[in-house]
Amino acid sequence: MARQVLIAGNWKMNLNHLEAIALVQKIAFSLPEKYYAKVEVAVLPPFTDIRSIQTMTDGDKLLLKYGAQDISPHDSGAYTGDVSGLMLAKLGCSYVTVGHSERREYHAETDELVNKKVKAALKHGITPILCLGERIEVREAGNHVEHCTTQLVEGLKGLKAEQVAKVVIAYEPVWAIGTGRVATPQDAQEVCFALRKQLSEKYGDDVANTVRVLYGGSVKSGSIGELVAQDDIDGALVGGASLQADEFTKLCALAA
Ligand code: PEP
Hints:
- With 256 residues, the protein is an alpha/beta fold.
- Helices cover 45% and strands 15% of the residues.
- It has a single domain (5-254), classed as Aldolase class I (TIM Barrel), CATH 3.20.20.70.
- It has an eight-stranded parallel β-barrel, surrounded by six helices.
- Strand 2, helix 2 (47-59) and strand 3 form a beta-alpha-beta unit.
- Phosphoenolpyruvate binds next to strand 8.
């Protein structure tokens, strides 16, 4: 079954709302409308930029999608600093990353919390991009496949098959994020294949063939082609390279 390629730019904690507008303008200018039939492109800016991007994409009827980098498991209430799915949906967010390794590490996010956030996103019609991946010591011990499939199972716990079909998975080995050390296409494919196999065993072939599995970790225009050529890699979650308009649009064009 053909799955549409998705390239999602994770801006992390970079760019204020004016810089965000400038970058989105450049991306929109460089990627003609017909391009979006082949590849879906999304940007995931900091919360403070989302309203500006919404105004711009609505006003100019851009096909570019956008989303957030985190979501509260709650809808509203006394949760200082958090932002809910209710609020993100109102801002027109299509996607939200959940369980990024930087949130797992710096905010002590557990699989249990990640699972609640996946459910919160789905509840509000936002597609969660469930991030998972192994640290270097886990890979060196040869336990990366088991580690990642466990994170997958825990992250999706309690979901019905039709809900799982709406989730995007991002395999992001921690040792590849922001290091310039991209996984080989074969190493990335090994894990993405295992994740899809796990989905098939638990939720059936239809779901497994529908879910998009992305690779993330130091992806650049030079590496995207070989990655998306793999059977089980349906696009990329891109950090650093998504902040440079020329590099990001080149990368998107090469993913088509
Ligand atoms: C990320 O933060 O999800 C990521 C993949 O970052 P980078 O591309 O910079 O490694």
